[in-house]
Amino acid sequence: MSDPDDDSLTQVMSCEVFGTLRLHPWFSDVGVEEDFYSLCVKRAQAYGWTTTLHSAGSEPASIRWHHAEAAQDWSQDGRVRRLAALEVYPAAPRGQALPVLPMTQVVADCLGRVGEVRVSAYRYGLPVHLAAGLGADVVDGDAWFALSSPGASVRAEITAQLPLSVRRKVTHALREQNALHPGPVRPASPSTSGESPALSWTWPVRLPEWSPSAVAWTTSAVCEALRETDVRHTAIRVDACGGDSPSGD
Predict the structure, then answer these.
(1) What pLDDT, in 10s, does the model give residues 177-214?
(2) What DSSP designation does 211 have?
(3) How would you label 132-164 residue by residue, b for 16+ Cβ within 10 Å and e otherwise?
(4) Strand-pair partners of 202
(5) Are 244 and 218 within 8 A, CB to CB?
């Protein structure tokens, strides 16, 4: 994956998934030699979100990104690991938001195809300055997740790297997402903020469910709040609280 100190990071979008993965018993028996990268390419092409089948400039208009790199750790020791990491170059958005939900869905599909997944956290690297429009996943989120089962609600934490000057704006935006119910913001702990010199902040929230789409909606809300600021790139992590993280399917 990219060096965090590289200026080219501001052009790259990434999605990482943390948790445990139990490979299907038949995974190694069927002679499949696909790694996570090749699975992601095939799945994204099936959705029409990216392609390796056309030369540059001749891709279908639906293209949302070009693949860069991927990584995986499918060790079968039951420990929480960074199961998957996908890094892409978002295509010219043509008035669209960054493809947070499409990318998250591809990663989730590929992990779910090879085994049983229990996801504890998602982490994104977002080139905010490339987001040219408000995504439907943010606008329609309240209505969509109002249909979640009342029993599916989970406690979570959102951690974002951003300057103090925009913290209030992000907090206000999250409070407008009616289903999130964010608590008081606080400085992030070193375990969640990582080693980046950027200032990190954490909001406790209540997600309507623990699913790839709910996490992508939450992440897109933070990205949208930053879109009209001077922030060019941010790292956003969403953690499920408690030791019994639900399935990531």
Answers:
(1) 666 788 999 999 876 555 455 689 999 999 999 999 99
(2) S
(3) eeebebbeebeebbeeeeeeebbebbbbbbbee
(4) 159, 186
(5) no
pLDDT tens for 67-101 read: 999 999 999 999 999 999 999 999 866 677 899 99
Q: How far apart are CA 249 and CA 246, in angstroms?
A: 9
CA distance to 33, 105, 235, per residue, from 226 (Å)? 41, 23, 12
Query: Is there a contact between 97 and 133 (Cβ–Cβ < 8 Å)?
Result: yes
Residues 6+ apart with CB under 8 A from 222: 158, 160, 170, 173, 174, 234, 236
> Residue 93 carries which DSSP code?
-
Beta bridge partners of 234: 126
Instruction: Give dist(CA 173, CA 143) in Å, integer.
Output: 16
Residue 114 and residue 21 in contact, taking contact as beta carbons nearer than 8 Å: yes
Spell out where the chain has E strands. Answer: 13-23, 65-72, 81-90, 115-126, 154-161, 186-187, 200-207, 234-240
Beta strand segments in 170-215, E:
186-187, 200-207
pTM: 0.88
